[in-house]
Write a structure and sequence with these properties.
alpha+beta, about 50% strand, four-stranded mixed β-sheet, 3 helices, four-stranded antiparallel β-sheet
Length: about 180
């Protein structure tokens, strides 16, 4: 009996840190309590080039819904840089963030109160060079399978080719995010 209880305690002790990690955001993100309202603005001029001492990161969200019928299916993704939220996107949109030259850690997550979606996080690191522009795409894909009424949700963060990033900025609306009070 004593051996069985000891094994049970060991399993419980090992499971607890894993459970905490699943709901804790990585260091590159911001405070999970911060939520954003995002408004988008179409036909905005291209962002101005960064100054010589800084680099620019353009964060672009690409949202795709596959299968079934969905009304106003858009997702808000928060973007963190070096442990603080830099802004957010909603649907197919973008925003620009300026950083000093050097190493930076990027994070995107699905702004949601649902446990399964809160675990969706994309991470990247960047050694930014002064005067350069970097385009990162947050890919959000929701797949609905009618046959078994199942949904799969995907989120990732990837560096884009500058030509592709520049094109997406031309066709997508600019996102303006403000923290909710």
């Amino acid at each position: 009996m004593r051996a069985g209880f000891g094994i049970l305690l060991l399993v419980a002790a090992l499971a607890c840190p894993l459970g905490l990690r699943a709901t804790t955001l990585p260091d590159a993100c911001g405070d999970d309590k911060v939520r954003f309202d995002v408004k988008t603005q179409k036909n905005q001029p291209a962002p101005a080039a960064p100054d010589r001492a800084s680099a620019q990161i353009v964060f672009i969200e690409n949202f795709e819904y596959v299968g079934g019928f969905c009304v106003d299916c858009k997702v808000t993704t928060r973007v963190g840089v070096d442990g603080a939220w830099a802004g957010a996107n909603y649907g197919n949109s973008y925003f620009v963030y300026t950083v000093p030259a050097g190493e930076h850690h990027l994070c995107v997550d699905w702004q949601s109160s649902l446990g399964a979606l809160k675990k969706k996080v994309g991470l990247a690191s960047l050694n930014a060079e002064a005067g350069k522009v970097y385009y990162y795409q947050t890919r959000v894909r929701i797949e609905y399978y009618e046959s078994d009424k199942r949904t799969e949700n995907h989120l990732d963060l990837a560096l884009l080719d500058p030509d592709e990033g520049g094109y997406l900025v031309k066709i997508d609306p600019l996102a303006a995010a403000t923290p909710k009070k």
